[in-house]
Amino acid sequence: MNSLCKKSLSQPDEQRSFQKGHVELASLGGATFGRATLQPGWKWSTCVKPLAKTKSCEAPHLQYHVSGRLHVVMDDGTESEFGPGDVGFIPPGHDAWVVGNEPAVIIDISGMTDYAKPA
What is the pTM assigned to this prediction? Predict the structure, then answer.
């Protein structure tokens, strides 16, 4: 890509829906940006695992958390919780769920290319 380019997640290249959530995707400059909106009650292992058909989430996520709270547990037991303004890296091998009654809105720039695509 050698020219100025602009896209909007409000008019995404692709959208994917799954139980209690959805993602909007825009690709440019070799990266896929994803905006995930995860509703209260969303949990990867119950809402996305049936699509991914893996033991845990195998996508690496480099994320900015816009709103809501997300709790993450790695396969090795390491845990962390993310909220508005946090940036984080979540390596492959984890489960996650929305904490509280507010939707979690997350911008992800590394793990959405194949996220929630049926296996």
Answer: 0.94
Task: Per residue of the chain (119 residues), give pLDDT as tens.
Answer: 678 999 999 999 999 999 999 999 999 988 999 999 999 999 999 999 999 999 999 999 999 999 999 999 999 999 999 999 999 999 999 999 999 999 999 999 998 988 888 76
Collapsed DSSP state (helix, strand, coil) of residue 106? strand
How many whole angstroms from its chain centre is CA 29?
A: 20
Q: Distance between CA atoms of 78 and 94, rounded to whole angstroms?
A: 9
Identify whether 2 is part of a domain.
no
Q: Is the dihedral of CA 89, 91, 92, 96 positive or negative?
A: negative
Range of the domain at 102: 28-108
The number of distinct structural domains making up the chain is: 1
Amino acid at 73: V
> Distance between CA 70 and CA 53 in Å, rounded?
22
